[in-house]
Amino acid sequence: MSQDAAPRKGQRDTVSVTLQDIAAHAGVSRSTVSLVLRESPLVAERTRRKVQRSIKALGYVYNRGAAALRGSRTATLGVVVYDIANPFFGAMVAGIDAALHRQGYVSFLANSEDSPERQQRFLERMREHRVDGILLCPAEGTDPALIATLADWGLPCIQVLRHVGEPPFDYAGTDFRQGVCQAMDHLVALGHRRIAFLGGHREHSATRERWQGYRESLERHGLDYQRLLRATVTRRDGFTLIQQLMAESPAPTAVVCHNDLVAFGAMLGLKRMGLTPGVDCAVIGTDDLEEAALGDPALTSVATHPYAIGEEAARLALRRIADPAGAREQVVLAPRLQVRDSCGAPASSGPAASSGGHY
């Protein structure tokens, strides 16, 4: 009976050696190691020899059969978001699917519910189904090392809306900081001096960028009033928080909300108190969902272009699949304030339609 060959003395177990291990040992990138293993002519001879020495020193054995299997594409992408019930993600996934459809791809969609453990299970299952890449909106608390793990699995990963780890990485999103700054500038121009921010208690990049915009705007305009209420980003929390705020003395005259769902809840809360949004307290949301233009009053909102973000994320994924060693790319779309009735100012010229794109 034959036995498995043991690693030679001084060498690591071949099963545990990854391309990242070889890259670290040789002082090159993981993509360079991959090119050497595939005998690519793009690698300089000196670099090739250095990588080959590291491969030998670590006892790595290249499994060409497995590599060939990985090389056969499935024309599928995994998409992991954290709140599939949020209409924002419906618009974003529509953009993803439209872009993929044009290239003959389809997507597998999963909802992490902002749980890193649940997210990990979905990613492992997608790997088993041999998707060609991952579009990931990282769950709160995601370990930045996850991106390197996906690379070790041979899965290109495009981060969407949120990002973890240090650049360079592939990313598609919007400038949340600038969006909040636009909302704050508009309210200050209308004469507001007591402006609160509602929603967001998760420590992730999208929330931090919003809070940064709020605090920078207060400082830039010399505003002393600061009320940043942390909460989940739901209608219910908007409904509850606005009533707490309006009971304070002094109460805010305007609120900027983490997203449109919080803003919708805030307007309902004002009405429950017998107050009128846009008259007794200005309300601005973020995302410019289709519902924003249909409210009473119509909601002023920062358009973050979910459909376009989805298209860009899909484009980046297909580009990365075609060129694994190419330069990383970040696409950050510029937000735009869509002025309607809820901030007490005249609406933007033209019909008060949502700018959120296709739904």
Automatic annotation (TrEMBL):
Origin superkingdom: Bacteria
Keyword Lipid metabolism: no
SMART domains on file: HTH_LACI
MF term (GO), any: DNA-binding transcription factor activity
Keywords of this entry: DNA-binding, Repressor, Transcription, Transcription regulation
Pfam families: LacI, Peripla_BP_1
Domain HTH lacI-type intervals: 17-71
Name the record gives this protein: LacI family transcriptional regulator
InterPro entries for this protein: HTH_LacI, Lambda_DNA-bd_dom_sf, Peripla_BP/Lac1_sug-bd_dom, Peripla_BP_I
